[in-house]
Amino acid sequence: MHKILFFMMLLLLVCTGAKAQQKTHAYYEQFYKGRENNLVRFQKEDTLDFDHTECIYHYSITDSTLMTTRKSYEILQIGKSFSFMQEYDTFRQDSCFHVMGLDRVREIDYYQVVERFPGQRSHHIMIKDHAKGEVTEEAYFGFNYNTYTEPAPQFDWTLCEDTMTVCGYLCQKATTCFRGRRWTVWYCDLPLSEGPWKFQGLPGLILQAEDASRHHVFEAVGIRKSCQPIVRKESYPYRSNRKRFIDMYNEVKTHPFVPEGTQAWDQFGNPTKPASYLFHNAIEME
Asked: pLDDT tens digit string along 249-273?
């Protein structure tokens, strides 16, 4: 079933355009020449659950300091005991590697897959453990994997009579104030008390969510039934609490550490100037 589901994905990978291939090989010429056939060592994986529903969201973040918006796609896997959200391209990369066989992926295969599904190349996951009533966030910044776990937040929802169609589903409006932002969400009649990020607690699946400033906007673009493993990779993260996590994230992005003489490189091996301020806008302000 897993191989059938992602067969077309691999066909697309094989047919990657000449331009992307040239970039990949240019990168290897500079950094990995002679190592193309080395096998990749993947992180160990822990299967938390199996999903029954997957919802893909378009997610946009705006940094008001840089006046820049970044867009990505996120996938929410919903299982009986866990839900798991991560960048969709990361999910697709992992799916390709599993189809290839984790013990057979070479370095050139790895980077061709990453070129095909580049995303934002960030490690950021959100795990809801329904049995324990906990939420875990994990992200890579400051040269470390960082994580914290907290009790699942209780949202004080106000249900409204307004309706709107999102992703083909008639949705109802709800609002809440949460940790410094006022949110408007739209939930459908699918009986899943779930949503993007930490959102939950409504009678149906949340398909759209945006804060009052529209600096953070989630919008569902696809919903499907599934039976895929919900997998967490072994990362040995630095464990802290939510406040410390947010403070470290803001500090790293606002004042990134750049050792003297550092030469920065872009994803294709071209030299670039180290950044003195990195794109960010923490979703929680308190």
From this structure: 888 888 876 555 555 555 555 666 5
Domain count, the chain: 2
Residue 93 and residue 6 share a domain: yes
| pLDDT, tens digit, 9 for 90 and up, residues 135-149 | 999 998 878 889 999
Residue 90 DSSP SS3: helix
CA dihedral sign of residues 86, 247, 44, 36: positive
- Average pLDDT score over the chain: 86
d(CA 244, CA 144): 14
Burial class (CB in 10 A: 0-12, 13-18, 19+), 49: buried
Contacts 24+ apart (CB under 8 A), 271-278: 277/65, 277/66, 277/253, 278/252, 278/253, 278/254
Q: Is 93 helix (H, G, I), strand (E, B) or coil?
A: helix
**CA dist 152 → 80, 194, 215 (Å):** 16, 12, 23
Q: Assess whether 169 and 105 both reside in one domain.
A: no
The DSSP-derived string for 13-72 is: HHT--HHHHHHHHHHHHHHTTT-TTPBP-PPPEEEEEEEEEEEEEEEEEEETTTTEEEEE
Q: Is 251 helix (H, G, I), strand (E, B) or coil?
A: helix
Residues 45-63 pLDDT 10s: 999 999 999 999 999 999 9
Rg (CA), the chain: 20
